[in-house]
Specification:
Layout lengths: L1 H12 L3 E2 L10 E2 L3 E4 L4 H10 L1 H6 L4 E4 L3 H8 L12 H12 L3 E7 L5 E10 L2 E9 L4 H15 L4 E5 L3 H6 L2 E4 H12 L3
Parallel strand pairs: 7-8
Antiparallel strand pairs: 1-2, 3-8, 3-9, 4-5, 5-6, 6-7
Helix pairs in contact: 2-6, 4-5
Length: about 200
Amino acid sequence: MLREVEDAIYRYAAGAFPMDGDGTVELPWYTAPERAIFELDAASRDAVRRKVRRDVRACEAFELAVSRDYEQVLQLCATPPPGEGVWITPRLAALYRKLYAAGYAHSFELWTPDGELAAGILGIVLGRAAMLESMRKTRPSAGNALLIRTLDHLHERDFDLCDIQLPTAHTERLGCQLIPQDEYEARLASALRPR
């Protein structure tokens, strides 16, 4: 287990990310010509907040938690909506469990006042870099509300980088930025250095 965790951390720190499903013997890791990130400065977070303000208001009473129920978030993210393909395969889920046990994987969670999980994000945290891997919601508005609360949480803890690997139409509407892979690697290296 230790070697698998060390290998995964080495690859994340080098700017790669895993994607499964092609039937290869070993879990494939990738880089992309451009990486999708959410900037964490106040102006960028405010721009996202304006786009999701109704969702934020609808979830004001919900509580943000970190890794309160990692396994529940992992199971939620590994169960795709009807008609969508599976992204978190069993071996990718097994890797995330090992990274969680080693202290590198975390879940960002939004809980309703009555104790129901409304949305969850799986992420890997290295230094001051957060690689957000997957997000699912169980309540309307909760996904967008969780995203902005997570960005605020990362900013408050002095993170420098919030990586989402590849953009979707939804994250592009919310304002994710595309940066060249070499710029991403430089920013990641900076986020991994002690201050």
